[in-house]
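call fold(seq) -> C-alpha cells
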Amino acid sequence: MREQLQAIEKEALEKIANANDTKTLQDIKVTYLGKKGSLTSVLRGMGKLSKEERPVVGELANQVREKITTTLEEKGEKLEQIALEKQLEKEAIDVTLPGRPVKIGGPHLLTKVIEEIEDLFIGMGFEVREGPEVETDFYNFESLNLPKNHPARDMQDTFFISNELLMRTQTSPVQARTMREYGGNKPVKMISPGKVYRRDTDDATHSHQFTQIEGLYVDKHVRMSDLKGILDTFAKKMYGEDREIRLRPSFFPFTEPSVEMDISCKVCHGDGCSVCKGSGWIEILGAGMVHPNVLSMAGYNPEVYSGFAFGMGPERIAMLKYGINDIRQFYTNDIRFLKQYHNA
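ret:
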C-alpha cells in the first residue's frame, strides 16, 4: 500500500506540473482526491492492514494528500497570475497616445442674454418672478385692461385652448398675479422673463413662440422720469455708455401714457444709415405708466399708488447687440451658428 501511495503522489505531481489551465487542475483534483479518486480508493483498503501498519500508512496517506493539495493550490495561483498578466497585456492602454478632443458646450446665446438682463435688473433692486405659460383669459387680457371684445385684442393673435384658457401672449399676466398676491398695499418691483405664444407666420423677424421680459414697478410717487432713468441705465449697460435713448408716444391698453423706446444706432451714432433705415434710431421696447384700471383690478388705489411697466423681446435685444438678422437662427440649433457665441 505504501508503494501505491507513493506512485499516486508521483503521478499526481507530474500531471500538476504539466497542467496549463485551471480546468485541468480541477480534473486532477477530482481524479486523485475526490470521493472516487485514487487516494480515496487506496484508503478504503486500510481495514485489511494490521494494527501496527495502519498508523504508518495513515500518516503517509495524509502526507500524500497534503502534498498534492498544496501543489494544486500553488500551481493554481501561478496559472491565475499568468492569466492576469496576459489579460493586462491585452487590455493595456497606451497613455502616451493623444486623447480625443472633448467638445465643451455652453449656454445658448438667448439664455445668456436673458441672464444678463436679469442680472442687470436684479442689480437695480428688481426681483425675478415667473408664472404659467397656459394662462386664463382673465389674467392675460381682462386684468390688463383688455375686456372681452376689446379691439386691442386683435393686436395679439392668440392660441386658445378653450374659451377661458390660452397660451399666454405676453408675460404681463405674471405682473397681474404678483400685484394681486401683494394685496394692493405693498410695493412691487419685478421682472418676468419667459416664453410667450402668438399665432404668427415665422420669418426673419417673427416667430409663433418667442421670449419676453416685462418689468413692473409700483409704489407711491413713481414717475415717468423714474421709468426713463431705468431704461437709460439698461440701454447703456447692455449696448455701451455712448448709447442714447428717446421715448416716443405710443399706445398700449395697460399703460397710460404709453411710449416706445428707441436707442441710437451703434453703426452711424444717430447720423442715419441702412441699419437704422436713415433715422439714426432703432426701436427696442415698449413701456409706459401703469393704467389706473390695471392698478384698481389688482387691488391698488390709483390715487395713492402709481407705477411703470415695460416689455422687451430678448431675441430683439440679442439681434441688435450681436448683429443677427434672422430670429429663426435662435431656434434651428445650427451648431455652426451657436458656437460663434460661446465666449460672447
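The mean pLDDT is 86.
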